[in-house]
Amino acid sequence: MINRVVLVGRITKDVDHRVTTSGASVVSFTLAVNRNFTSASGEREADFINCVTWRASADFMKNYVKKGNLLAVDGRMQTRNYEDNDGRTVYITEVVADSVQLLESRSSNQSDNSGQYRNKYEANQSNDAQDELYESTKNLIADDDLPF
């Protein structure tokens, strides 16, 4: 059986970080993923996909990911259920992210309005490696090149 999901989209709001009673970090977030086509009225539509990630990826997201950031998510679909206060069974389908990558972030210098983005961020990269990667790739992608 195969259960694999790969998404690229923008986070719709700042992450919801929690810590379980056993001390594990967990982050819930919603990713807006554009569809490849437009509606009959010519507007681009998006799907809003609920996601969750745990431990190191959750800590990374808590520290570095903000509303509007472009993320790549690799994980699996999961459906769970619970009984609400009225006795009804509620089903939740979400992506459990094994890997989350920040594909862009504005330069830490907010006065840079050139539209250049920092291309990367994985939880285990050092700041020096991130700065070196930024310098080597900062002119590759401009706002106008992005499909959304």
Please characterize this protein's 3D structure:
With 148 residues, the protein is mainly β. It has a single domain, classed as OB fold (Dihydrolipoamide Acetyltransferase, E2P) (Beta Barrel). 14% of the residues lie in helices and 43% in strands. The chain has helices spanning 55-64, 127-137, and strands at residues 5-11, 16-19, 25-38, 44-54, 70-83, 89-102. Strands 1-3-4-6-5 form a 5-stranded mixed β-barrel. The longest helix has 11 residues, at 127-137. The radius of gyration is 17 Å and the shape is globular. The model is unreliable at 108-127 (pLDDT under 50).
Radius of gyration: 17 Å
Helix and strand sequence: EEEEHEEH
- How much of the sequence lies in strands comes to 35-45%
Rounded mean pLDDT is 80
User: Which fold does the CATH topology refer to?
Assistant: OB fold (Dihydrolipoamide Acetyltransferase, E2P)
Q: Tell me, what is the CATH class?
A: Mainly Beta
Low-confidence stretches: 108-127
Helix percentage range: 10-25%
Question: What characterizes the major β-sheet?
Answer: 5 strands, mixed, barrel
Number of helical segments? 2
Distance between the termini: 33 Å
Name of the CATH superfamily = Nucleic acid-binding proteins
Count the domains. Answer: 1
Give the total of beta strands.
Answer: 6
Q: Which overall shape is indicated by the principal axes computed on the Cα atoms?
A: globular
Structural class from helices and strands?
mainly beta
CATH architecture, please? Beta Barrel
The side-by-side strand order for the widest beta sheet comes to 1-3-4-6-5
Function: Plays an important role in DNA replication, recombination and repair. Binds to ssDNA and to an array of partner proteins to recruit them to their sites of action during DNA metabolism.
Keywords: DNA damage, DNA recombination, DNA repair, DNA replication, DNA-binding
Motif (Important for interaction with partner proteins): 143-148
GO biological process, one term: DNA repair
